[in-house]
Each structure stands twice: as C-alpha cells, then as structure tokens.
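Figure 2 data, in text form.
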Amino acid sequence: MLLDVDLMQNPLYTVAEAARIVDVPVSTMTAWAKGYQRRRTGKPNIIGKPIVTWIEPQGRGWPSIPFIGAAEALVVAAVRRRGVPLQRVRPALEVLIKEIGVDHALASQRLYTDGAEILYDYGHRRGDSEEGHAAMELVVVRSGQRVFDQVISSYLDRIDYGTDGFAELIRVPPYLHGAVVADPRRSSGAPIFSCGAARVEDALALFQAGESLEGVSLEFGVPVDHLLDVLRVTSCRAA
C-alpha cells in the first residue's frame, strides 16, 4: 500500500536507523543531525553545524529524521566515502546549498544536475586554498563537462527524484544491484527488497528462525541472490 507522507516534516527514522540506511556509524549520523563541538587545548573549539534535517523526537526512541534527511545524509556519506574530511568541504557545501537556492538542497535534483558545476566554480575561485582543493576533489572534467567524481556519482545514482524535484526513493548502500530500497510510501520507509517489497528485517527473521534461503525466497517473492546480498552485508556489519 502506497501512503502519502510529508517527506520533509514527518520523522520516519531514529538516528540509528538512518545511519544503517546510509551505511555510516551512529556517532557520525548524530554529528550530522545535531552538530558537534570539539574542544582543543589552547586553540579555538571546532564547531560543526547540523547538515542533515533533524526534528525533535516526541520521546526517547521515537523517530527524528524525515526521509529528506536520510537523502541529505546519503549525499554527505558520499563525500565521506570520497575521503574528503567534512570539515574541509563544509564551506563548499554551504556555497552549494546557497547557490541551489532551495530548502533541503542536498536532497534536490538540482544538486544532481548543477552541483558539480557550482563546486567547480567555487573551487576555481578559491584557488590554492584548503577549501578550494576540497571542492575540486569532488569533481572532474570529462569531455569539457564538469561532473561529480565517480564515488559521488555512484551515491547520487542511488536516489530517485519525484516530480517536485526532491528525493523520493533511495537504493540503499551497500547492497548491490539496487536489491534494497528505502521508500517512504511503503513500510514506513524501512528498508525493503526492490523485488517483492518484503521488509528486510522480516526476511532475515524467517531465515534466522531456520527457514532455508529457497523457502524465504518463495515466502516473500525475493530472488535468492538478493537474499544472499543481504546476508553478506549483515555478516560484514556483525564482524
């Protein structure tokens, strides 16, 4: 059943759930959602402002991150995977958000279409500076076009955008072939299999209860190779 959900204002995930969807540590997601301050002896403190949409939860254990926040976090995770420290690239991201000119710019399709050009121009203007180099590390020039680095592009390609120009579906990393998605209109945004639409946690529970892979596949309509991919990711996270 498809539901109408306010993707920007309706919290769907706890910080821990959002962290699992974008495949980052909970502590990292907490810093992105709530900001942080690092004290340094004899030096000014380092302050990181929130960069992911977070809404005050109604109580302990309640969700606090809407779907749009998870999409924003996926983009920030791409920068992290590229190996550029977020503190170095924050000025470039702030310029990017300002230039795109809409709320939740990191989850906007304009980031996908115009973001590389904006970052390249910013990096060029900043020249031989830490901020300029950080911006330039995220983009490359191919056939005369400014495009995102392959790592960034691979993450952005995991996002589907709606008619309003904002993210509406995430193909969850690190699963292969889009086997698992987060769709806010189905299963309250919990990760589900793209084939069969079963909740990942339900299929795992049945397997862990002793059912064979073939049995789980028949029960939920999920291809065996997708189940194997989920088991691979689960075992890596448990290691």
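Caption note: The longest strand covers residues 43-48.
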